[in-house]
Amino acid sequence: MRLRRRGETRTAHILDDQALLRRTGRIAALQAALALGVVLALVGTVAYFLDGQAQDREISSQLSAVVASADDVTDAPPGIALAIRAPSGAVAVSDRAPEVTRRLLDGSTGYSDVHARGVEYRALVADRAGHRVAALLDLTPWRTGRQRLLLALVMAEVAGAAGAAGVVVMLSRRSIRPLATALALQRRFVADASHELRAPLTVLHTRAQLLARRADKQDVDEGLRGQLHGLVADTRALGDVVEDLLIAASLESDSQDRDRVDLLGLCEEVRDSAVAHAESLGVGLDVEPGEASDVAVTGSRSALRRALVALVDNALGHERPGGRVLLRLGRDAATVSVAVTDTGVGLDPSVAQNLFTRFAHGDGHTAGVRHYGIGLALVQEIVDAHHGHITVEGAPDRGATFTLHLPAADPAR
């Protein structure tokens, strides 16, 4: 039954990895599409602006040529209306010219834009050999051409962005299988190696404890007894690392058991398992239940226990003899909190976030011992996997408080 469960978990991990990589591929496709869309938008804007300037120059050139060569209003080019006023004051207007054409002769010379009956015109008025000539060019074909250009640019941008997204998605799908396989193999190796190491490490730790106890009872050299007790501590720490690796390897699985976990009972269990170690350090360890009657959450009991053990170990490792480590529970409408507080050497708030980096070894919270490993980083991952968050408070020589904030379990469960 256990082998079946491990196989199901591995299959779930592979599916999780594939889903993660597919999501990453979609994000990459969206980013590529947005980037190409921005580039195409800039290119299209420049092209549209330059086309408008070219049209304006061509329109002005055409009007200037018509005004310079017009002898009468009967030979007006298509799309252009003419009005000519002779030195005698007689005015001639071309057929189908808008009414505004005649009025332009009374205005100032030069280019202007006019509207008549919903149509936009570009006008030029100039004096030539005693005659005043006004020419109007219907801008409708030009505006239609610009609209077509704008539509073509928009379609090109959409097609380019969609094409870029499609190519990225296709390439990402090709890379999903080998990447998912590599991630699954890596996780399987860590899990299998940790499972295989756990049993011999337990035996080694037990034997080291027996040797240390026998050395305490017999007349054994003090240095040798110290080495044996150090071996006990080292095997215990190594077992903790193996346990951390097991939890880290399976933490993100959606198939992981999610049960109703009573945090009060879990805190008392952690206290009972660590109280002997705390007493050997001359440190008090206790649980403060608080006033809340229901401090249950939904999640993995083993992972949450490992998080609390890591926080308690961290507090004990930085506490002075005669100090006290307290697990304090709290509850509000939607959140359950567990605060692990010590009265030790404290920490520097400026490096608090670095404490959750794997294998970080700063001096921000130390009592002469530097911690190496994934303990606090694993705590962060466990809290994230349970949709909660962790806060850190403290100051040098004033102790530290690590508080887990987790969503409360549904009372109906």
Question: What are the SSEs and their pairings?
Answer:
Elements lengths: L1 H68 L10 E6 L5 E3 L6 H5 L5 E7 L2 E10 L2 E8 L1 H78 L4 H29 L8 E4 H18 L3 E5 L7 E4 L1 H17 L6 E8 L3 E8 L32 H11 L3 E6 L5 E8 L6
Parallel strand pairs: 7-9
Antiparallel strand pairs: 1-2, 1-5, 3-4, 4-5, 6-8, 9-10, 10-12, 11-12
Question: Short description, anyone?
Answer:
By secondary structure, the protein is an alpha+beta fold.
Count of DSSP-assigned helices = 7
Helix vs. strand class: alpha+beta
Order of helices and strands: HEEHEEEHHEHEEHEEHEE
Total strands: the figure is: 12
Keywords:
single chain; 413 residues; alpha+beta; Beta-Lactamase; Heat Shock Protein 90; five-stranded antiparallel beta sheet; five-stranded mixed beta sheet; 7 helices; disordered N terminus
Structure report:
With 413 residues, the protein is α+β, with helices and mostly antiparallel strands. Among the domains are: 68-139, Beta-Lactamase, CATH 3.30.450; 258-407, Heat Shock Protein 90 (2-Layer Sandwich). 55% of the residues lie in helices and 19% in strands. The chain has 7 helices and 12 strands. The protein has helices at residues 2-69, 100-104, 140-217, 222-250, 263-280, 301-317, 375-385; strands spanning 80-85, 91-93, 110-116, 119-128, 131-138, 259-262, 284-288, 296-299, 324-331, 335-342, 389-394, 400-407. It has a 5-stranded antiparallel sheet with strand order 2-1-5-4-3. It has a 5-stranded mixed sheet with strand order 7-9-10-12-11, covered by helices on one side. A hairpin with a 5-residue loop joins strand 1 and strand 2 (91-93). The radius of gyration is 41 Å and the shape is rod-shaped. The model is unreliable at 1-10, 252-256 and 361-373 (pLDDT under 50).
